[in-house]
Amino acid sequence: MKQFSLRSRVVGHPSSKAVARQMVAMCPANGRRGLALQRMAYRIVRAVPSLGLRSAGSWPLPISPESWAAIEARIRDVRGPAAGAVLWHLPPADQPQVKFGALFLDSADLPLAFARVLLTRDVPRLAPRVAEGGRTGIRWPMRLEEFCHDGLSVELSTATPAGLHVPVHLGLRAVTDLCADIDDAFGVLERHAYVPDNWTPMHGDLAHWNLRRYRTGDIHLLDWEGSDWAPPHADLARFIMTAPNGRQLAAGLPKALGPELEEAALFWLDRGAKAAEGEVPAWVERKHADQAAVLSDLLAAT
To answer: What class, spelled out in words, does domain 165-301 have in CATH?
Structure first.
């Protein structure tokens, strides 16, 4: 897995220290080495922002000017005018349906809204309009609007705070409470007739790298666009199989959860097998193999 990846561009802004810092801050960083690299890049662009920025005319827009204008117009309607944007291109092998993400900034270079643009003509599902969890106080970005334009699907949400963040590593009790919050909040998802009766709402990517603590002390849970119905405790199984201490967490699980956790673990094993079909980068294969090993421990513990 990549520990730190600087895949951002800036559109619509001149060189600005604030924009350069935000560009680096929104990039993913995993592990001590990844965090160290991110902070080094943060200090560099703070001192010399031109190293991290290009002028607005240097980068072509990733979509047609008409589609870009449509996104800006929707953001203006729900949040106010945007002065610029930081583009974030996700690795196709990891999320092939995502064309790009864009953090829109206001005139003070502060986060205004986040747009995720998908390669689909389907109107996005309405996700939960929640701002924070009840038991843990962990916050979610609030979904603002979903629409389609020119064959693309666009999801608008509120933005996370400006500045650097650190990953959050939760204990088993905190993860269990967070899963209960998700179950309560995500119950607004549409339940189709084909969904098994025992399935419950899930975040879809509950992993430590999607939990970020900011300087304000607030913890935000990101990337909930994959929320859906799944076997009970699917989020708990997902967190355990991706956590650095996943095997220790699995060992502490109550035996009473055994049957439901087994169904959840098999659910993720099936998803991992489907995701690994075809040609994928070596780091994706290693990730799936590591997760499968933790899930095997999880099944053994049940």
So the answer is: mainly alpha
